[in-house]
Amino acid sequence: MPTNKKKKVLIVIGSFKIGGAEKMAINIGEELLRNGYDVNFAIQKPIFQIPHTIDKSKIHILNKNINSSRYFHHSNNIVRIGILSRKFKPDVVIGFTYFSSFLSCFTFCRNIVGTFDVNPYSLGKKRHRIADFVCKWSGVKKIIGPSRGTVEEITEARPKYRDKFITIYNSVDFERLNVLSEDQEGVEEFIFKKPYISAIGRLSEQKNFTLLISSYAKSKINKTSNLIIVGDGSLMVDLKKQISDLNLSDKVFLLGFKSNPYPYIKNSQFLVNASNFESFCIVILEALSLGKMVIASNCKSGPSEMVVNNFNGFLFEPRNEPELVALLDQVYEDKELVSQKSKNAVKSVEKFKLEKLGLEYIELIEELCSN
């Protein structure tokens, strides 16, 4: 536990938009505040979508012009975070994405904790250079991966920095999620007129909603259950066309962005995640913490560290449509299966509770400050 509860921590994140890294930044920041740390947030854009309890005086917007050019945005943020750091004088700086970790280097703090929220070495060469800069920076003492799989991947890519790489899982505030899940304000009433399957996420190639919709169309489960997809993104038009072409417009509903997606998860039969790849996938954790079984693609990292096959849900190979169809058919044919697996959901993810993982951050901060 902390020896000096007035240590200063600066958290760096892109914005407070809906996203796994952003949720983690807020969750851990609030947990550190509850434990007496002086926590401030440096955010790169004025986007606020996630509910939080952080005082406005502790949130510093580096670039208030959301439409500025990329060059101005990045150069401005580098200058502004340096100014903020000199004023705030943080004992520890924590970046919650790989780019926020890069930006954190320009605080020139001697104790920086980076985060590779995704494996940057699986992306383009520009991201490789950014990640390498973070790895090499002397002030960066540790780099967090949100799952064992992610840490294994980045260690394989840059083995000489293995001593910097550590795993701290993403976490959720179980109590807050349950409160939010009971809030029905703004929820479309027609949703509850028929049992439904939920799916949440950005409408992108990565999340592979195309596979989910196609599998749902071929499964017997579409006879009894609708499919509700919450999220926005570049594939909205394409997915709408797919739904229309499959004559599923009265069964599959794209609801767009929701600031509070939790009632949709809470009232669903179960959640499906069909992603091609993940780093962690916090929506799986959220669904399990709300007592919902999950069917998820067995990506190289993330889902299998939460979903225990045939215990609190099921895993299938990424992009394997026949396997997903078979699982959906199995759920349709065995009416007790969902309730059986859902009973195990909450208990199976207790190790991801915010209090437990917040303590890991506290121990890391104290260790860095004592050296």
What do you see in this structure?
Keywords: Glycosyltransferase, Transferase. One of its GO terms (molecular function) is glycosyltransferase activity. This is Glycosyltransferase. It is a single chain. The protein has 371 residues and is α/β, with parallel strands linked by helices. The protein folds into two domains: 8-171 and 353-370, 3-Layer(aba) Sandwich (Rossmann fold), CATH 3.40.50; 180-350, 3-Layer(aba) Sandwich (Rossmann fold), CATH 3.40.50.2000. It contains 14 helices and 13 strands. It has helices spanning 20-34, 70-88, 98-104, 125-136, 148-157, 174-181, 209-218, 236-245, 262-266, 282-289, 321-333, 337-342, 345-348, 354-370; strands spanning 8-13, 38-43, 59-61, 92-95, 112-115, 140-145, 165-167, 196-200, 226-230, 252-256, 271-273, 294-297, 313-316. The strands form three sheets. Strands 3-2-1-4-5-6-7 form a seven-stranded parallel beta sheet, with helices on both faces. Strand 5, helix 4 and strand 6 form a beta-alpha-beta unit. Helix 1 crosses helix 14 (354-370). The longest helix has 19 residues, at 70-88. The model has no long low-confidence stretch (mean pLDDT 93).
List the helices and strands and how they pair.
Blueprint: E1 8-13, H1 20-34, E2 38-43, E3 59-61, H2 70-88, E4 92-95, H3 98-104, E5 112-115, H4 125-136, E6 140-145, H5 148-157, E7 165-167, H6 174-181, E8 196-200, H7 209-218, E9 226-230, H8 236-245, E10 252-256, H9 262-266, E11 271-273, H10 282-289, E12 294-297, E13 313-316, H11 321-333, H12 337-342, H13 345-348, H14 354-370
Parallel strand pairs: 1-2, 1-4, 2-3, 4-5, 5-6, 6-7, 8-9, 9-10, 11-12, 12-13
Helix pairs in contact: 1-14, 3-4, 7-11
